[in-house]
């Protein structure tokens, strides 16, 4: 059974994270299927833009703790979104946690309904938002990231737009995206690709400079005793031992 739904309308390919049973957590299988779908979109000249969305009430709960992707695979997926020669838009109507926020930051444009919520929950299970910082740090307000990275607090869609995680938020996310998609359909494909390269150059510099270091950090933290305690506590629905 596929974990990625695919539809197309007027040159826009919609890829839906379709694993609602685990809240679209980023498993090794889901990351692999999404990467394959993006590869197809990059090769297909009929695709003018890609919309990344979800089924269920969660865009993505972050890494699948039972079947996590290798950090290198997640780096590869995020870079693939940034480098795709088509604009990639995130469409969010539910909750986004941890690694799912890396997908949003990698997209060129991200829109969410006011019902969406966001949180960098890594510190609460004993790890850090390492790999997802590659697209996040260049694109998001640093003071806001300091607060939300360090506390794991939940924040809403208007706040996500204020700090640069989202392009826009509204009561009806499709109404928000409609004029954006219309503009992309009216834009010349080669011009779009070259304009995207201008916009993503700084983000790709962070991948070139920091990917190896952050991948190693992620692997080290996920193998740590605190991470084992944090993940066990999460799965057992209890506070980890360090909570005071």
Task: Give the structure's gist in a few sentences.
This protein has a domain of 169 residues: Alpha-Beta Complex (2-enoyl-CoA Hydratase, Chain A, domain 1). The protein is built from 9 helices and 10 strands.
How can the largest sheet be summarized? 6 strands, mixed
Tell me which CATH architecture of the domain at 4-172 applies here: Alpha-Beta Complex
CATH fold description of the domain at 4-172:
2-enoyl-CoA Hydratase, Chain A, domain 1
* Helical/strand content category: alpha/beta
Q: Could you state the order of secondary-structure elements as H and E?
A: EEHEEHEEHEEHHEHEHHH
Classified by CATH, the class of the domain at 4-172 is Alpha Beta
Distance between the termini: 43 Å
Unreliably modeled segments: none
Relevant CATH superfamily of the domain at 4-172: 2-enoyl-CoA Hydratase, Chain A, domain 1
Shape: globular
Radius of gyration: 17 Å
Strands ordered across the widest β-sheet:
1-2-3-5-7-10
Number of strands: 10
SSE topology:
Layout: E1 4-9, E2 12-17, H1 28-43, E3 49-54, E4 58-60, H2 71-83, E5 88-92, E6 95-97, H3 99-106, E7 109-113, E8 117-119, H4 133-139, H5 142-151, E9 154-156, H6 157-162, E10 168-170, H7 173-185, H8 189-222, H9 225-235
Parallel strand pairs: 2-3, 3-5, 4-6, 5-7, 6-8, 7-10
Antiparallel strand pairs: 1-2, 8-9
Helix pairs in contact: 1-2, 2-8, 3-4, 4-8
